[in-house]
Amino acid sequence: MGFYLYAARQIGQKEGLDFACNLAAGATNFLLQREAKGKEQQDFELEHAVRIRNTVSELATRIELREILSGAAYNISYGRYLNAGGGVFFNKFLAYIRAESQVNTSILPFARTLNDISPSILSLILHFRSLFIWIKRDANPNELNYFRAIEKFCENEKKLAGIPA
Q1: pTM of the prediction?
Q2: What's phi and psi for 121, nearest 5 deg?
């Protein structure tokens, strides 16, 4: 929802409101690998597929937004891991994240293990990687880093909008 609102505001500065909302919905669906709801939105997304991809790429050039989106992808993927029956005490998802944060460690064995549990676990992270959005997590990721990224992004947005602190 946050990405949709941000995208609609950014696009709405250049385009009409209806077009901006449809484009923002398409960008959000593309980003999160979701199907469009309703024939009108499906048709819009088919007609404007290139523009939707370009919009995601353009909006994701901001490092603060990439950090937030990566934190969200981490949380969604971790939830998918737990939902698929992944263990908490011997956590294969965190093993993947930790391996990814190491310079000379191959993530392939960890990715295969997670894919065997459920292909959906890493699908969003891999999608973000293909879009050059994914920022690797620390070896010990926590929610405080994610919260700080959101807080920093909001502070910057207020400054850009001329809203006093």
Answers
A1: 0.84
A2: -60, -50
